[in-house]
Design goal:
alpha+beta; 6-stranded mixed beta sheet; 5-stranded mixed beta sheet; 14 helices; 24 strands
Length: about 500
């Protein structure tokens, strides 16, 4: 049974989904990094890029958003069959546009926007600005599938797109029209609000937390939800009653709800680069801005059969865990997995099949490309928001996120060169603050190099130690021996 734990009582909102006690999905939303996906703004075109068929939009965020020509209603409704029309025919600099965020800012990139405004319910999706009708492929009855396509085509307007979802399959036409009317009124309200405000302005803010919880609950008829926010508890109880779901919802307060349900320990493991498999193998995750690399290792697993079978068993376990970790860590973009080399091609195909099967459970679009000639599995996962690592960490102020710092030798020899540049000045002494590791290299064992160094720089050297483990230094001042001596004291 699906179990959800919602920690909404503190400023950082967290929602976990468990299956048999194992963490399967995690959403973390710090107040300063709250997702804007789904939010709708009145934006202003700041720059038209004909070479990219796109524009930059000022919608009020720190970075301007990116809007491609294909996401502009005027293009969708009048586009030429060859698709070569210049973006300048559809939008101009300074123009105001209604835009919706489809992907949050990540790193140096601004948000991705669309002018095709979408409102979703669990049974119907309304898109303004395109001529389209879609019906869920999960319908069990082909006749009902066709009937709903015809119904949507009958009632939609030329500038509307409608997607009929699975839960609409056994509903009446009256219910369909009622929900369509509500979604149309939402869009009309947006247009009225946009006419009365200046750009950039936020027009509609998605309730990220409740939307995510309701989306999870919509997928299954039964389940359990433990939540520590009373107002959200009341809203969700009401939603369950109105939608005929059999979810058990409990309000829990006082202690850390993630600790109570053994989620906290599982969350802490997601910050680690190494993930151990149950059979003793392990994975290493390396995230970069360009792509993510995952290395599979046999570790402590030696197996009791032939080498090929042993390595294949590790790769099978790794394939399942990789798919789970990608969801939990929200790793997106290009993903390269270095599985242990396998001699049999059928084993490689089975690994691909496992990854595809596990990826089918992912809410985001996953594409498994296949193995390269070097045996690296290539795949992609749609990016809509920052990864867990991006949300929970910042670049190290010492190594700038590289994971490495300059050695004591490198820093000591740079300091020596800096001091040599002042050897011809009239100053008698110099005061330097330096870390202990750098000082040990600079002066040599038992300060044996000090006389030589002071002779080279033609100055008396006063050193004071900087606490901490960083390899660094700071030249404080030059002057006479008496001046530096007094300052040094």
């Amino acid at each position: 049974m699906k179990k959800m734990i919602a920690n909404l009582a503190s400023r950082e909102k967290r929602v976990a989904v468990l299956e048999n006690g194992v963490l399967r999905k995690l959403e973390i939303m710090p107040p300063h990094q709250r997702s804007t996906v789904g939010n709708i703004y009145l934006g202003k075109v700041t720059k038209v890029l004909p070479g990219m068929d796109a524009v930059f939009i000022d919608y009020g965020a720190e970075k301007n958003g990116f809007l491609h020509r294909d996401e502009i209603p005027s293009f969708q409704l009048t586009k030429k069959s060859d698709g070569k029309a210049s973006i300048g025919q559809y939008v101009r600099q300074g123009e105001k546009l209604l835009v919706q965020v489809t992907r949050d800012e990540t790193g140096t990139k601004g948000a991705k926007l669309t002018g095709l405004i979408e409102f979703s319910t669990d049974s119907l999706v309304y898109i303004h600005g395109m001529d389209y009708v879609g019906v869920s492929k999960k319908f069990k009855n082909d006749d009902l599938h066709q009937r709903w396509r015809e119904t949507a085509l009958q009632y939609k307007k030329p500038d509307e797109g409608l997607i009929v979802r699975t839960s609409m399959e056994n509903e009446s036409e009256t219910v369909f029209l009622d929900r369509l009317t509500i979604l149309r009124e939402l869009f009309k309200g947006l247009e009225l609000k946009a006419a009365s405000v200046k750009a950039p302005s936020l027009l509609y803010e998605r309730d990220t937390y409740l939307d995510m919880i309701i989306s999870e609950m919509s997928g299954t008829a039964t389940g359990e939800l433990a939540i520590d926010d009373f107002e959200a508890y009341q809203e969700l109880k009401k939603w369950v009653q109105e939608n005929g779901k059999e979810w058990e919802i409990s309000h829990e307060s006082g202690k850390n709800i993630f600790t109570e349900w053994n989620v906290e320990a599982q969350v802490e493991k997601l910050a680690k680069k190494i993930v151990w498999l149950d059979n003793g193998g392990y994975l290493i995750f390396e995230e970069t801005e360009a792509f993510t690399v995952i290395d599979v290792n046999s570790g402590k697993f030696t197996g009791k059969v032939a080498k090929e079978a042993t390595l294949f068993a590790v790769n099978q376990a790794a394939a399942k865990e990789v798919a789970r970790q990608l969801r939990l860590r929200n790793i997106s973009g290009i993903i390269l997995i270095d599985f242990i080399n396998m001699d049999q091609s059928r084993h490689a195909q089975e690994i691909i099949d496992i990854v595809k099967k596990e990826a089918a459970r992912d809410e985001k679009r996953v594409q498994v490309i296949g193995f390269t000639e070097l045996g690296i599995l290539q795949m992609t996962r749609k990016r809509t928001s920052p990864s867990l690592s991006e949300m929970m960490t910042v670049p190290c102020p010492v190594c700038s996120g590289s994971g490495k710092i300059e050695s004591p030798e490198t820093v000591a020899f740079r300091l020596e060169r800096d001091l040599l540049e002042h050897r011809k000045t009239d100053d008698e002494a110099v005061w330097v603050e330096v870390s202990k590791a750098v000082a040990d290299v600079l002066l040599g064992e038992k300060e044996s190099y000090r006389p030589t160094l002071e002779d080279l720089i033609a100055k008396k050297l006063f050193l004071s130690l900087i606490p901490g483990s960083s390899n660094t230094y700071s030249i404080k001042r030059f002057g006479s021996i008496q001046e530096i001596g007094r300052a040094f004291e």
